Amino acid sequence: MTHRVVLVTGPARSGKSEWAETLAQKTGKPLVYVATARRDPTDPEWSDRIERHRQRRGGEWTTLEVPIELAASLQQATPGSCWLVDSLGTWVTNCLDLDEASWSEVRTRLLASLADLPEIELIFVAEEVGWGVIPAYPVGRLFRDRLGSLVRDLGAIADPVYLVVAGRAVNLARWGVPLGPTPTLDRPS
């Protein structure tokens, strides 16, 4: 790879997006923010969150709204830029309607696309899931499994990998021992 992949993960409201934005700004490269959230005009609280994120970033960012076709959008990256994808949890949520075969294809396409990127900095923000109780509903377990596996696979590719908790960032690539990609699991029927 002639580019760098960075993963920033952590629980909700930990500061992971702010840390990722700080890392991106420190590159000194043209900044592209890939927003995976879908705007919903019937949800004013969600719209307010999106606006607060936009205001915090400031005007030097180009923003792309990419709710599904993440791999295709990354292929449009220009050399010498820094792309920040926020967030993988929202992207996985947008893909929950996909059956397992379709999800596997979309996920594989995203991971494979990382090998073909031009010389860029690429930062992914992802929520950590599975630190609490097992979700009571099938869609919650599906979300947890899909996002957890994707984050693990990106963690095997990315360097550095940051865990942000309570407003503090720890470089797991420096202190942790890599386990490698997610093993293939047989899903219960």
From TrEMBL:
<keyword id="KW-0548">Nucleotidyltransferase</keyword>
<keyword id="KW-0067">ATP-binding</keyword>
<comment type="pathway">
    <text>Cofactor biosynthesis; adenosylcobalamin biosynthesis; adenosylcobalamin from cob(II)yrinate a,c-diamide: step 6/7.</text>
</comment>
<feature type="binding site">
    <location>
        <position position="86"/>
    </location>
    <ligand>
        <name>GTP</name>
    </ligand>
</feature>
<dbReference type="InterPro" id="IPR027417">
    <property type="entry name" value="P-loop_NTPase"/>
</dbReference>
<dbReference type="GO" id="GO:0008820">
    <property type="term" value="F:cobinamide phosphate guanylyltransferase activity"/>
</dbReference>
<feature type="binding site">
    <location>
        <begin position="35"/>
        <end position="37"/>
    </location>
    <ligand>
        <name>GTP</name>
    </ligand>
</feature>
<dbReference type="GO" id="GO:0005524">
    <property type="term" value="F:ATP binding"/>
</dbReference>
<comment type="function">
    <text>Catalyzes ATP-dependent phosphorylation of adenosylcobinamide and addition of GMP to adenosylcobinamide phosphate.</text>
</comment>
<dbReference type="GO" id="GO:0009236">
    <property type="term" value="P:cobalamin biosynthetic process"/>
</dbReference>
<feature type="binding site">
    <location>
        <begin position="54"/>
        <end position="57"/>
    </location>
    <ligand>
        <name>GTP</name>
    </ligand>
</feature>
<feature type="active site" description="GMP-histidine intermediate">
    <location>
        <position position="53"/>
    </location>
</feature>
<keyword id="KW-0342">GTP-binding</keyword>
<dbReference type="GO" id="GO:0005525">
    <property type="term" value="F:GTP binding"/>
</dbReference>
<dbReference type="Pfam" id="PF02283">
    <property type="entry name" value="CobU"/>
</dbReference>
<feature type="binding site">
    <location>
        <begin position="10"/>
        <end position="17"/>
    </location>
    <ligand>
        <name>GTP</name>
    </ligand>
</feature>
<comment type="pathway">
    <text>Cofactor biosynthesis; adenosylcobalamin biosynthesis; adenosylcobalamin from cob(II)yrinate a,c-diamide: step 5/7.</text>
</comment>
<dbReference type="InterPro" id="IPR003203">
    <property type="entry name" value="CobU/CobP"/>
</dbReference>
<dbReference type="GO" id="GO:0043752">
    <property type="term" value="F:adenosylcobinamide kinase activity"/>
</dbReference>
<feature type="binding site">
    <location>
        <position position="65"/>
    </location>
    <ligand>
        <name>GTP</name>
    </ligand>
</feature>
<keyword id="KW-0169">Cobalamin biosynthesis</keyword>
<keyword id="KW-0547">Nucleotide-binding</keyword>
<comment type="similarity">
    <text>Belongs to the CobU/CobP family.</text>
</comment>
<protein>
    <recommendedName>
        <fullName>Adenosylcobinamide kinase</fullName>
        <ecNumber>2.7.1.156</ecNumber>
        <ecNumber>2.7.7.62</ecNumber>
    </recommendedName>
</protein>
<keyword id="KW-0418">Kinase</keyword>
<keyword id="KW-0808">Transferase</keyword>
